[in-house]
Amino acid sequence: MNIQQYNDYIACDYARLDRYISEHLQLLSRSQIKSVTIDALTVNGKKAKWSQKVRVGDHLMLTWQAPESFSLLPQDIPLDILYEDEHVWVINKAQGMVVHPGAGRKRDTLANALAYRLQQSQGEIYDEQRLGIVHRLDMETSGVIICAKDAKTHAFLAQQFKDRTVKKRYMAILATPHLTPARGLIQNYLDRSRRVRTHFVCGDNPERGRFAATGYRLLANFNALSLVLFKPYTGRTHQLRVHAKSELFPIVGDPIYYREDPRETSLMLHAWKLQIRLPHEDAPRTFMAPVPDRFYRCLALHKREKFADTKE
Q1: pLDDT digits (tens, 9 = 90+) for 97-124
Q2: How far, in Å, CA of 121 to CA of 116, rounded?
Q3: I need a surface site. Which of 60, 236, 294, 310 has the fewest CB within 10 A?
Q4: Which CATH class for the 167-307 domain?
């Protein structure tokens, strides 16, 4: 059993203890905080909560059991590779494919497929924990995702996501025939639902949620649906799905945020374009994953009424 401990004083004020630990101390990421076993968490000698505020000079003591290392199973899984060079893969991820192994799923993920390709080409896997995964897409979301072949490239790409210089465009079908206004910017804070911790909700309290911003534009109206282009400026979990549900209309087929409509069981959300700079290149490249067949099948059921301007 691998027991880890931190015992020191808080260096700066923070709205939430878990954010201080993940962002300032870099002991555990926020995802690791949810998965590890915490033996002791105290501030100034008193039992603490992840959500509480901390201030300069507070005494923090944290003891946790580090997760056991796991061996990633390389699997020869077919991938739709849009682009590949010595540094990266750009992949059109299929709907239904999980990006990285997690609780209850150790195989048949994108990471398993990448592990096989690294093993075949390089003879080794450089980082089983991250395995080239720079950003993520939900299991139900299809589309373009970029993955690194080595640690240096991973750091280079990850910094661009951190600096928010990566440009992303998503296509979605919303459950409304009339989207007004036809374009706009959504800005608020996303936090976990108190009722269902795997769900997220919008709010206006920066101390409870994480800032999220999404631009949107109507592309076409149909009898009962709207085709929309999303431009996320931040990359929060379920961001587009929650913003659509709370501020516009739900995304068709969303199994979490639009379960009221049983007619479509496939999420109509697709990562369409990704613009990012590759190693040893001065200008960014744009990669595009073709709109999937499920969009055409869904829209074919509804007579097209009017098209909006499709120029970006």
Answers
A1: 999 887 667 899 999 999 999 888 876 6
A2: 9
A3: 310
A4: alpha beta
Q: How confident is the model at residue 90 (pLDDT cuts 50, 70, 90)?
A: very high
CATH level 3 topology of 81-162: Pseudouridine synthase (3.30.2350)
CA-to-CA distance for 138 and 167, rounded, in angstroms?
A: 18
CA–CA separation, 35 and 41 (whole Å): 15
- Domain ranges (residues) in the chain: 2-66, 81-162, 167-307
Cite the active site residues.
138
pLDDT of 292 higher than 70: yes
Q: What is the pLDDT of residue 141?
A: 97
Could you tell me if 129 and 66 are in contact, meaning their C-beta atoms sit under 8 angstroms apart?
Answer: no
3.40.50.720, 3.60.20.30, 3.30.1330.30, 3.10.290.10: CATH of 2-66: 3.10.290.10
Specify the higher pLDDT residue, 170 or 299: 170
Band of residue 207 on the pLDDT scale cut at 50, 70, 90: confident
Residue 289: is it exposed, middle or buried by C-beta count within 10 angstroms (0-12/13-18/19+)?
A: buried
